[in-house]
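Please decode residue identities from the backbone states below.
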């Protein structure tokens, strides 16, 4: 092995015989190799290589696979606009975030609406432009309220997003259908259906209120209602609070814990007791409802089995009746054949007797 390594090192020296310096073989474990090895020459970087490069990102990267574009979830409300803001200036403000649709501006009231291609682009635009100073005042950007969103309850655990969208597409175009799950990915029995327009949502509400929409074999209809929408992202910043007389009165003291034996502690305890009583009553109501659901589920299963038995009995009776009719038809056919055979037998006997007479004569 050592001779082989030596041969590998000596081969380059034979190729460059003009170099008078001898070649030395160092062991890889020799620590002096680090100090004897010459440092690599510095790279010659041109000024163009040292300049920062601008990263370009395609707007298509902000669209998830299968995501629908220009939906109600991509619609932004822009408030506190200057009175001289034109529609062209409004569109230009959002031009870097891709194509925009449904551009509307109300100069008199100082607000507008705009719909971008995807939810991600709308979130980026909101994060970057909210609070921008225009006309010596900051603009306010929020996601517009979705007026065609419905909450669906009483869903079976086997219902998926796709089945939910399929079931509600009969009322109109569906932009998004989602089954709500918990932290472990288990279905909670609730879902969200967002239509493209309000008439479709109203049609779904009316049809499901008058009838019973079933998504699976179970006769358990879904319950739908308008979605109660909240803003749990931006909340209520301090700068947006109205500084009224009540505000200044309530904010005279900083957040604190009530001290035992004080007026604050006494009424704080009473408020907590009231909240605990409300919690217990809600839990009792939920237990009663759960028991009623389980009872109804058991009754439904029993009735389903009874219905299946009844259908099996009816099917058996129908088959027996068909067998009886087939047997009657068979008997009738046999009787017809016997009659035909008997009719054919009489002429033959008569003919044989005639033959015998003629022979004797």
């Amino acid at each position: 092995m050592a001779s082989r390594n030596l041969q590998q090192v000596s081969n380059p020296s034979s190729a460059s015989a003009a170099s008078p310096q001898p070649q030395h073989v160092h062991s890889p474990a020799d620590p002096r190799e680090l100090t004897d090895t010459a440092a690599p020459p510095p790279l010659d970087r041109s000024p163009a290589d040292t300049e920062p490069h601008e990263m370009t990102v395609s707007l298509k990267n902000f669209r998830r696979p299968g995501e629908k574009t220009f939906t109600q979830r991509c619609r932004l409300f822009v408030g506190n606009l200057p009175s001289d803001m034109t529609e062209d200036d409004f569109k230009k403000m959002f031009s870097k975030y891709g194509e925009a649709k449904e551009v509307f501006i109300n100069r008199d009231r100082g607000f507008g609406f705009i719909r971008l291609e995807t939810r991600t682009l709308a979130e980026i635009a909101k994060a970057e432009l909210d609070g921008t100073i225009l006309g010596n005042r900051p603009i306010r950007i929020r996601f517009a309220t979705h007026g065609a969103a419905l909450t669906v309850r009483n869903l079976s655990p086997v219902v998926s997003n796709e089945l939910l969208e399929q079931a509600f597409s009969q009322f109109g175009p569906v932009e998004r259908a989602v089954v709500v799950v918990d932290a472990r990915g288990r279905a909670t029995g609730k879902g969200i259906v967002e239509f493209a327009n309000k008439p479709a949502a109203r049609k779904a509400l009316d049809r499901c209120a008058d009838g019973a929409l079933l998504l699976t074999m179970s006769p358990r209809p879904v319950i739908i209602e308008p979605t109660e929408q909240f803003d749990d992202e931006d909340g209520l910043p301090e700068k947006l609070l109205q500084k009224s007389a009540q505000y200044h009165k309530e904010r005279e003291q900083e957040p604190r814990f009530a001290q035992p034996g004080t007026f604050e502690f006494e009424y704080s305890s009473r408020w907590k007791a009231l909240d605990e009583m409300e919690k217990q009553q809600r839990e009792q109501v939920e237990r009663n409802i759960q028991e009623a659901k389980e009872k109804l589920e058991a009754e439904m299963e029993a009735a389903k089995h009874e219905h299946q038995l009844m259908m099996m009995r009816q099917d058996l009776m129908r088959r027996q009746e068909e067998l009886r009719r087939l047997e009657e038809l068979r008997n009738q056919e046999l009787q017809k054949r016997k009659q035909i055979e008997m009719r054919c037998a009489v002429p033959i006997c008569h003919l044989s007797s005639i033959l015998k007479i003629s022979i004797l004569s």
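Observation: The CA atoms of residues 104 and 113 lie 5 Å apart.
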